[in-house]
Amino acid sequence: xxxxxxxxxxxxxxxxxxxxxxxxxxxxxxxxxxxxxxxxxxxxxxxxxxxxxxxxxxxxxxxxxxxxxxxxxxxxxxxxxxxxxxxxxxxxxxxxxxxxxxxxxxxxxxxxxxxxxxxxxxxxxxxxxxxxxxxxxxxxxxxxxxxxxxxxxxxxxxxxxxxxxxxxxxxxxxxxxxxxxxxxxxxxxxxxxxxxxxxxxxxxxxxxxxxxxxxxxxxxxxxxxxxxxxxxxxxxxxxxxxxxxxxxxxxxxxxxxxxxxxxxxxxxxxxxxxxxxxxxxxxxxxxxxxxxxxxxxxxxxx
Length: 302
Hints:
By secondary structure, this protein is mostly helical. The protein has 2 domains: 2-53; 94-293, no CATH class. The chain has helices at residues 2-23, 28-56, 94-103, 112-117, 119-131, 140-162, 189-197, 229-242, 259-262, 273-278; strands spanning 180-182, 185-187, 248-249, 253-256, 290-293. The protein has a 3-stranded mixed sheet with strand order 3-4-5. The protein has a two-stranded antiparallel ribbon with strand order 1-2. Strand 3 and strand 4 form a beta hairpin. Helix 1 (2-23) runs antiparallel to helix 2 and helix 6 (140-162) runs antiparallel to helix 7 (189-197). It is globular.
């Protein structure tokens, strides 16, 4: 704004200078009168500019706020806030699921020759397991799904490596052979069952993992999945307990699988063994019911 006023004053001064030059060429009385007039105009103009300047730009007025337009730095990189939420990868078990659908019946009978014919596909699943070892950040159900499916797939592989065989017990140290590498570690079936799955405090895993034997729980013909884990574990437990070839249950008498004897501690986390069984049977078992354990049939589940 001041620049405009200064320009205006400059124009007045120039005009005055031009007028003075013209006056010098005329008679002296007239020049004197014009000079006085011009000086008066210049003085008044300066005063007007000064007054206007004081009104428009009140430098000492503390109540006046001047808002500056923020400068935009075009080339400055935009800082994006990092998302610290841990990302969880849900491992896809579809390769193994397709094999189970193809080679395992509704009753849990396993077609081992069929698996042998599709052995390359089974090995592909092992490669997928190896490349997706669970991390600590994985939710519990995702870890359960990974290790239950791995245990069942490795058990099938153990049988295939020794097929034909009548029983898993015909194989030397079947649960102690370190045959499968996941990450940088070699695993056996005992590692997975006792050092991983049992430590997750979920007793129903004993009805999900299968030892390739007749008296074992049946091998489900679909994989266990994190999103349906609770439903699947409950279903597997109820099916096992209601199977008369594996358990005979009445209100006052129990003839049950040796699984309940071998892993009795696992089933007593929230009460007695009978308390656990009562959650998954339609029979109300008496707390004083007699218990005995069935002989275990190790014949192959084919």
